[in-house]
Amino acid sequence: MSDNKKWYSLDLGQNKQKEATASCGCGKTEGSCNSQKTELSADEFYEAAINASIGEERHRDGFEQVFDVKMDRRTAFRKLTASLLIGAGAVSTSCSAVIDNKTKEKAQIDWEEQFKGNYKLMTDEEKQGTINRLMRSYELRTGKNISMTAENAEEDVLFGYAFNISKCQGYMNCVSACVEENNQDRNSQMQYIRIHEMKDGQGFKFDNADDNYYHEVPAEGHFYMGTQCFHCDNPPCVEVCPVQATWKEEDGLVVIDYDWCVGCRYCMAACPYDGRRFNWSKPEVPENEINKNQHYLGNRMRKKGVMEKCTFCVQRSRKGKNPACVEACPTGARIFGNLLDPNSTIRWVLANKKVFRLKEDLGTEPKFWYFMD
Amino acid sequence: MGRFKVLKSLVIDSLDTITKGSKKYHIWMGFLTLVMLIGMYCYSIQLDEGLSVTGMSDRVSWGLYISNFTFLVGVAAAAVMLVMPTYVLKDIDFKQAVLIGEGLAVAALIMCLAFVVADMGGPSVLWHMIPGIGVFNFPNSMLTWDVIVLNGYLFINISIPFYILFRHYQGKEAQKKVYVPGAVLSVFWAVGIHLVTAFLYQGLQARPFWNNALLGPRFLASAFAAGPALIILVLAVIRSFTAFRIEDKTIKKIAMIVTVAAQINLIMLASELFKEFYAPTHHSESAYYLFFGLHGKNALLPWIWTAIPLNILATVILTFGKFRNNLKVLYFCCFILFAAIWIEKGFGLIVPGFIPGPYGKIVEYLPTKIEIGVTIGIWALGAFVFTILAKTAIGIELGELRYKNKNSSDS
Ligand code: SF4
Ligand code: SF4
Q1: A197-241, pLDDT tens digit by residue?
Q2: What confidence tens digit (pLDDT) does each residue in B229-258 have?
Q3: Residue predicted with more confidence, B336 or A11
Q4: Which of A259, A354, B103, B207 has minimal Cβ neighbours within 10 Å of its Cβ?
Q5: Nearest ligand 1 atom to alpha carbon A236
Q6: CB-hemisphere CA count at 13 Å for A82?
């Protein structure tokens, strides 16, 4: 096992320059960066994003856009094949002169979304392009605006998480905060976090634990322990994906491109921590409960037949905020931070507490530690 | 140029044969078509509502589809058991059986691919898996290996019999130096598809029930029992319904293969059971669940306790040459062996891998009606494809289909 797998022995000399860098996710230094515009209202933001990315092109209709874009051979081939296979309907829609512009635009967007590439391999412009399309498509369908960003990982950041077993009382505020923040399917009651209620005096007996309780907490003679995706440093789920729809980002987050996933569920079988959730049917969130601050890799709306999971709230953490579960926890049992910053709380915990991780023998190197007071 | 003409006439001729036949044949094909239509209807419901119409859940995320897929890879690989002696060891005896065996492999592979597609959450974005257009996570993901080996095997098993039949169709002998290298390749390839499919499961450290070194070899042994057992049954049917001559000697030789493979399979089963139950660890829980149930949850018990006795019974009977050489007994044994291994290598292998879950949670799995409908539909598709292939092949081999014949009658 190589040394840099053990993240805590990493050379941390780089953190001086860190303080000088603005906390901007897009890596640009000028003011045009998106992550600094968070104070803008959703509408303003949307306008700005559209202008920045498509500019004058937005005034042309869908038909012109498709055939004006410069395509490389691969893209062209993909579009051609695709049109023969599935896109026939969309083509005829976007070519017909009778229907109104909105329908055309919608068809145009659906078309480009169906045949776009893997997010992992996109350039920054392409990323911006797809989130603009997604925002526009949402507006066309519902008449409402959402704000979606595509911040990349920052340099010198590696996210980690610690869980204080002594403090957790099983309130599950984290669970509901997570569901609301991440727009999880309400029908199937999907939850990324599971809180396991265990009996005192039996140690960590997961098989006797109850992860689906409905009684008052803290229950006498019990203690609580939360699990979710651990964002393994050596994630088996990533290895097995046949299409690279899931991968580890530079800042350690293990993410999924929901539009690239083919839904084979191999990653689910490979995860030793029950970290993944599948959309067995079309996920549904009431319109007024939708969290409209979204990230492409995070809490944007999913479709049926794709995998999803905890992303350490990428839409928040890359803006320098804590994940929703950390913020919601009334007991302070949850600690989140940058493992490469020696002054962070999480580093303090790792240095001063007797921490452990689950199933260490599997070599997955989770970035999620447990400790007790 | 001439080749294309021959090909065209072959296609026309075979279309002709497969649409003509006895009444029984028409009833059989009509029945298969009906079942396929039912399967398609079930699949359309699944497409519309999502995989929630199946019995699968976040806790047991693979079920009947993947079980059948796994089992059928075994059946497909079994064609090799016939290929080897015929082409390589020049055992004339097997020649007719081989064409049937390879037809069976093609049908099984088509079913495999259909099961995988049925299991996908997003069949409309399946192009993401096509190398070059999509992103192919090779060599990291064993699933990409499986895609390659399965399609390669399909290609080999289509081209070899096609070459031979094409030659025979023209009344020429198939040239050994053309097809023997292909046949040798397919021998290795068959072992490959099996091992790779086993590695699909074996490589997951998250699932101790699968993560054991015996999984691959046991896959091979059980496949080489179940596959030829199915071939024997199919040969028996063909023998009684067509003029195609298959000698007792051929069937008895295949029975030998079945017997040896079934014996090896039993030995490995014993070794597995010993390991799980002599010194049970935390990792033996899945096996406990499978054989005895855990915490009152025991949905798989009736299945596995049907499979094990059938398996032992068949193996014991087959071991005695006296019984094995009695064709009636042989057919019966092949049938129960096939059913036993279907349960064991399908359901009994896939489902316990997920139970108990990573944190010990036990959620049981039972397929829904829709899932069963799709599954039966895909089996009907396999039978349909096989019937077509076999009918054409038999027609050519019997000399009913000949290029020359047709030309002379035309002119
Ligand atoms: S916990 Fe599971 S889903 Fe999360 S990174 Fe590790 S293996 Fe992947
Ligand atoms: S379900 Fe999606 S993310 Fe998971 S392995 Fe399959 S394609 Fe990859």
Answers
A1: 999 999 898 888 888 888 998 999 999 999 999 999 999 999 999
A2: 998 999 899 888 888 888 888 888 889 889
A3: B336
A4: A354
A5: 7
A6: 25
Question: What's the structural domain count of chain B?
Answer: 1
Contacts A81 to B, Cβ<8 Å? 127, 133
Which is nearest to B73 in space by CA: B25, B46, B49, B108?
A: B108
CB contact under 8 A, A239 and B353: no
In this structure, what token pair is assigned to residue A113? 């979304």
Answer yes or no: is pLDDT of A149 > 50.
Answer: yes
Q: Does the residue B227 lie in any domain?
A: yes
Residue B287 falls inside a structural domain: yes
Report the gap between the CA of B362 and the closest CA in chain A (Å): 9
CA B205–ligand 1 middle distance (angstroms): 12
pLDDT single digits (tens) B305-323: 999 999 999 999 999 988 8
- Cα–Cα distances (Å) from B329 to B62, B233, B256, in that order, read 36, 12, 14
Taking CA–CA distances from A192, the nearest residue in chain B reads B58
- Choice from A247, A255, A267 to test ligand 2 binding pocket (greatest atom count within 8 A of CB): A267
Q: Do A269 and B353 touch (CB under 8 A)?
A: yes
The answer to whether residue B45 neighbours chain A at the CB level (below 8 Å) is: no
Q: How far is the CA of B296 from the centre of ligand 1 (A)?
A: 30
- What is the predicted ipTM? 0.90
Q: The tokens of B78 are what? A: 């079994």
Return the residue in A112, A122, A240, A277 with the most chain B beta carbons within 10 A, the one to mutate for interface testing.
Answer: A240
Residues 6 or more apart whose Cβ sits within 8 Å of residue A351: none
Please identify, by atom number, the ligand 1 atom nearest to the C-alpha of residue A310.
4
Ligand 2, atom 4, residue with closest C-alpha? A267
> Which tokens hold the place of A305?
């037949």
CATH number of the domain residue B240 falls in? 1.20.1630.10
Give nearest CA residue, ligand 2 atom 8.
A241
Residue A280 CA to ligand 2 center (angstroms) comes to 13
Chain A within 8 Å of B127 (Cβ-Cβ)? Answer: yes
Q: Mind spelling out the 3-state secondary structure of chain A?
A: CCHHHCHHHCCCCCHHHHHHCCCCCCCCCCCCCHHHHCCCCHHHHHHHHHHHHCHHHHHCCHHHHHHHCCCCHHHHHHHHHHHHHCCHHHHHHHHCCCCCHHHHHHHHHHHHHHCCCCHHHCCHHHHHHHHHHHHHHHHHHHCCCCEEECCCCCCCCCEEEEEECCCCCCCCHHHHHHHHHCCCCCCCCCCCCEEEEEECCCCCCHHHCECCCCCCCCCCCEEEEEECCCCCCCCHHHHHCCCCCEEECCCCCEEECCCCCCCCCHHHHHCCCCCEEECCCCCCCCHHHCCCEEECCCCCCCCCCCEEECCCCHHHHCCCCCCHHHHHCCCCCEEEEECCCCCCHHHHHHHHCCCECCCHHHCCCCCEEEECC
Please give the domain boundaries of chain A with CATH numbers for all domains: 5-67 (no CATH), 159-371 (3.30.70.20)
The domain in which residue B72 lies consists of 21-403
Q: Is residue B204 part of a domain?
A: yes
Closest CA–CA distance from residue B49 to any residue of chain A (Å): 6
The tokens describing A57, both together, are 């092109």
A44 in contact with B, Cβ within 8 Å: no
Predicted TM-score of the model (pTM): 0.85
Put simply, whether B128 touches A (Cβ < 8 Å) is yes
Residue B149 lies in a domain: yes
Residue B126: C-alpha distances to residues A24, A129, B371 (Å): 36, 23, 20
Question: Do B359 and A306 count as a contact with CB atoms less than 8 A apart?
Answer: no
Find all residues with CB under 8 Å of B236, minimum gap 6, and list them: B251, B327, B331
On the 0-12 / 13-18 / 19+ scale of CB atoms within 10 A, B315 is buried
Give CA angle at B205 (B200, B208), nearest 5°. Answer: 95
